[in-house]
Amino acid sequence: xxxxxxxLAAPGDAETRVRGSSFLALAAPASDEATARAVVEExxxxxxxxxxxxxxxxxxxxxxxxxxxxxxxxxxxxxxxxAIAGAGLLDCVVVVTRYFGGTKLGVGxxxxxxxxxxxxxxxxxxxxxxxxxxxxxxxxxxxHTSAVxxxxxxxxxEEVEHGYAAGGREGEIExxxxxxxxxxLRDLLRDATAGALTAELxxxxxxxxxxxxxxxxx
Length: 218
Known about the structure:
The chain is α+β, with helices and mostly antiparallel strands and 218 residues long.
């Protein structure tokens, strides 16, 4: 589906060691900035004695952030972000925690270490395909039941919930449909009921599918 994107289904982690320093990376799904910040803050609390907690996130809509967290400018956040972009992922955050081993690595060494740790954590995390979707409501007289059901099937509706409206005199359905199918659903309802029915928008949602191209490193 043309507006779908690849994201993480669950966290993944990895560890690398470079000249005595340990780089512990965590990759996790994050659908918004608040979730991404919460992942970073939890990591900081859990590993309070670390030297640095560097991170980046990349969200749908072009939102991103990269932080060096005390490392030289461009040596940590940027390579972490590059690892996320290189994997073709959105709606995810990566935190790489460093325990300093006593030997300075230089900017080039840090770029390689942070980028490698981030890439390994991303490789370890299971993936899924996210499909932007809409939650819709349809209210209909019972004589239009068959037309409504056929329209839902053709529009690939999911998470369908049936109910009643107008004191039980009408049917009511709430459903989730891929965003790219919204216009089709509205056209189907209009054509099948001579313009009597339409769908009311309730909220934006996301549908998820397994990523068939993902191979677990285990």
